[in-house]
Amino acid sequence: MSSAPHTIHKKGSLMEEIHDAREISVQKCYQCGKCSAGCPLAEDMDYPPSVIMRLLQTEDRQNEAIALRSETIWLCVTCETCATRCPMEIDIPGVMDFCRQRSLEKKMTHPKAKNIIAFHKAFLDSIDYTGRLYELGLIADYKARSFQLGQDVALAPGMIAKGKLSFLPELIRDRKGLAAIFRKTLHRKGGRS
Amino acid sequence: MKLGYYPGCSLKGGSREYKESVVALCKRFDITLVEVPDWNCCGATAAHNLNKELSLSLPARILAQAEKAGFEEILVPCAACYNRLMVTAHEMKTQPALGQRVKEIIGMEVSGKVRILNVIQLIEKYLLDKLELKMHRPFDYRAACYYGCLLVRPSNILQFDRPEDPETMDKVIRKIGGQPVEWEFKVECCGAGMSVSRTDLVAKLSGKVIDNAVYRGAEVIIVACPMCHSNLDMRRPDINKYLEKKTDIPVLYITQAMGLAVGISEKELGLHRHFVPVRLPEKGLLTDMPGEELEHQQKEG
Amino acid sequence: MARIGVFVCHCGENISATVDCAKVANTIAKMNGVVHSVDYKYMCSDPGQTLIKEAIREKGLTGIVVAACSPRMHEPTFRKATSEAGLNPFLCEMANIREHVSWVHDKGDPTTDKAIDVVRTLVEKVKKNQPLEPIRVPVTKTALVVGGGVAGIQAALDIANAGHKVIMVEREPSIGGHMSQLSETFPTLDCSQCILTPRMVEIAQHPNITLYTYAEVTALDGFIGNFKATIRRKAKSLDEDLCTGCGLCTTKCPVKKIPSEFEQGLGFRPAIYVPFPQAVPNKPVIDRENCTYYLKGKCRVCEKVCPTNAIRFDQEDTIMEIEAGALVLATGFDIKRADFFPEYGYGKYKDVIDGLQFERLASASGPTMGEIRRPSDGRVPEKIVFIACAGSRDPAKGIEYCSKICCMYTAKHAMLYKHKVHHGEAYVFYMDIRAGGKMYEEFVRRAIEEDDAKYVRGRVSRIYEKDGKLIVKGADTLLNGRPVEIEADMVVLATAGVASQGAEELAQTLHVSYDAHKFFAEAHPKLKPVETNTAGIFLAGACQAPKDIPESVAAASGAAAKVIGLFSNDELTREPLVAIVNRFPPPYFSTCVGCFMCQPVCPYQAIEKEQIKDRSGKVIRELARINPGLCQGCGTCVALCRSKSIDLYGYTNHQVYQEVVALLNE
């Protein structure tokens, strides 16, 4: 036939990376805005989900940086409402997960997301140490990371009184195995971030 | 009968009453729960936010441990754990290369044959058919069944109930003598893992849920997720501040509601651990419910 | 002795870019029996055809092979040229060296070698070709129109007015289709019923048209010019000749609360009913599923009140066979019910309705006499939200294609609402406005600029009810995706247009192809838009894809023109590529042993039994005989025949054998 076969020029864009890593086609988005309309946190976001999708679609470095630096990706709580209703069946939370990971790697995280990231990291630290979540340790770690020293102090006595806070962490036996999982996935050499 | 069981961290800590009620309810129905040996945290909402491989490896290790222990089926009462385990099993099955990588990371085999049950599935599968015999008094309240996100979404993976207007918990409530209310916020998000880091947003999202439940005349909200529970219960002062009114509607786990119906004590069900006091009006107390006597007769016969 | 001419075409560069055409011609020239072999840039062009004609005349050729493209397009071209030079057209064959060779291989010697092989086999075949004569069949000049909506009506009137007989079959009790349900039509806002009902009456009164309502086509046999259709006329429980259409029975029927199909469930009808006042024929039918007499054996009120004793409770369905030369399919479309969108609450909230329901609310003959009142409490809605693409362009829950008509009817709905409720507010959530068409864009602009319809570009995520209002949660993608929340009194979903219910079964009954969405497939998307792949069956209107009224009518007239063209012939010629059971002079008669295993496998019921009698009239043998009028040349019987007694003209066993041998003997 007269038309030549397609030659795919890889642009190295985030959109391509998302497709290669997670088989999600950002290209499919036709900007209907249903995700933004249903997102419970859209009004608190700097860019609603559909705009993040558009920024990625442009395959423009500057626009990609806007997405990675956005507060949106950290406010997304993966409630999956968008994916459930997306007419094009795009895994938007998967895109958010990818952007979060990349934003961290490139140290492009939004300043206001500091506490959210601190909490996630403290959470993982706690598991890394003991294998299970140790809530008191998590809160202490989070406070140290976020300097939110006063927050939720009022809750603690109530939780203790109701038997909801343990003073000792539960340890699992195979802590070595678990430490190996963290080492292999987060590519940590020695100390923790 | 014995059933494999993955409690997860919340049930060992802040959501102790969920665990207590699950265990007590199972005991009442002659089911002994056996914990997955040496289980670890599933990574919950934190891991997938930061690292995909980690978010799959943690649940994969749990599945591997369950498999090693010879469980064909495990109960996972926490909705977040249920969600992470289901997603992991699905991704490992549909993306073999990724599955292989995860197996290498955890250094264990995962064949994917362990079935994962959430608490509603447990009730439907093992408890409902024996319910009539065990009934003590009807849970005669107008209940708003709140499913949240993690039990029903992503629906293509979980394949549990209808994603927009789920009904399984409502059916259970009806079976134990309650009246599920029609309301609009069954599957809205409560704010999930941002309870600590962005309490303001949790107060807003959970506030809308509480507000709609009260507006629709519910006397109690029923949940099956520790995160939903702690946001709706423990964060109530923040919620009330957001709503600019004092709401005192209690939030019960489905296992607590069912426990009450089959005559388990409030203490055993951990109702005293709630922040919003569980003050349900005494009504419909039927001492002549046939359940216990029938059961007794059957055991004798 | 065979004298074969071979003509190798370059097809511009389509073939010559990868195949060495000169080498093909030169190699073939050396073959036994080939007396002429040339290559040329465009063999289908006038000079190319002249090359063939001259060679036939000058060299006395007995067979032609044109090595070029697929025979689908140009076999008729070259056979015509052959015939014009005085040779039987069936002595010309095409070797496909484009689709089978040049387009699917890279340039190189192996490609050229394959082209040579392909041509070689055809040369060996054509040596065995026999002159054949086309089969002539008479044409039944009656058209069968299936479906009585606006497309069927148009096609039927066009054909009937050209002087041909038409039989129209409609499965509902009345003709009129969806158009009869519409209030006003875009882009002129003229009343739908006012322009349609005169034509419905014309159908009923036209001397050339026979109308069967409450009837369906259940089987079709035959072929172009000579179809035989079986029609099942459902029992109306009524003697139509006696009934005067006075309507007394419908007013006295005690069953009154059956949701009316015509009113889209917004109104009610009795068990004996006429779908709507302007129905054609204006005579009732009894809905047996809801009639008390059929359910409980008692009642018969209609029978008692009927002044002409026309009620027939014991009437049964009647099956009739009709003959037709052509079919026009005009079975229309359905709308996709909106209840697959749980987030929109259709079916749960009474005031969330679909577009067709809004048409009934806006229609002067509708359940509210044309006043816009919401179904739940009859209040006039102060604020309406219209949602476009509620099902269309939605691979997740709906259909992936654009339903094409919704942008326009939604603009019309907003406009009609504003014309009737001046102080009301109309919001339209849309993704794109697709208003291609004469005066269409202007119409949408009018809705926005003059009638103040508020267009918001974004999709709605959810609708729920609070305090008697419908909370519509959408987004404005032109304002950075900002969430928009509207407290509406009523929501209208522009649901998708889908294939008519039962379209798939009908397509299978009629042997026409259909697409993935069960719309009937046209023979060519551009050049044969109203033809199907089955000769003699044509398409009109939205049974092919969602279409608006002007398009449906245009397609219907197109289909009618095709039928009238077909009927301008007294007889048709068909290619003689049919199967035949061999015959020899006595005492052998045939190698056919009369097992008749071929009979059940024939998809066209073309195989009959022929009795061979001796002089005294005694039957001595029974042989298979194939009716050339019915045979479609599929070859199934040939493959099955155990005694190898059946041959397919144009593709005889001997010819195919020669092709295979040619390939084996390099």
Structure description:
The complex is a heterotrimer of chains A (193), B (301) and C (666). Chain A is mainly alpha-helical and 193 residues long. Chain A is 53% helix and 0% strand. Chain A folds into two domains: 14-109, no CATH class; 112-186, no CATH class. The model of chain A is unreliable at 189-193 (pLDDT under 50). Chain A has helices spanning 14-22, 34-38, 49-57, 61-68, 72-75, 81-85, 92-105, 114-130, 135-146, 155-161, 175-186. Chain B is of the alpha/beta class and 301 residues long. Chain B folds into two domains: 2-117, Glutathione S-transferase Yfyf (Class Pi), Chain A, domain 2; 135-273, Rossmann fold. Chain B has 14 helices and eight strands. Chain B has a four-stranded parallel β-sheet with strand order 2-1-3-4, with helices on both faces. Chain B has a four-stranded parallel β-sheet with strand order 6-5-7-8, with helices on both faces. In chain B, α5 (79-94) crosses α6 (96-106). The longest helix of chain B has 17 residues, at 52-68. Mean pLDDT of chain B is 91; it is low at 284-292. Chain C has 666 residues and is of the alpha/beta class. Chain C has five domains: 4-127, Rossmann fold (3-Layer(aba) Sandwich), CATH 3.40.50; 135-230 and 322-332 and 503-570, FAD/NAD(P)-binding domain; 235-316, Alpha-Beta Plaits (2-Layer Sandwich); 333-498, FAD/NAD(P)-binding domain, CATH 3.50.50.60; 579-648, Alpha-Beta Plaits (2-Layer Sandwich). Chain C contains 18 helices and 34 strands. In chain C, the strands form twelve sheets. Chain C has a five-stranded parallel β-sheet. A five-stranded parallel β-sheet of chain C has the order 20-27-21-22-23. The longest helix of chain C has 19 residues, at 109-127. The model of chain C has no long low-confidence stretch (mean pLDDT 95). Classes of the chains: A mainly alpha (193), B alpha/beta (301), C alpha/beta (666). Chains A and B meet through α6, α7, α8, α9 and α10 of A and α1, α3, α4, α6 and α10 of B.
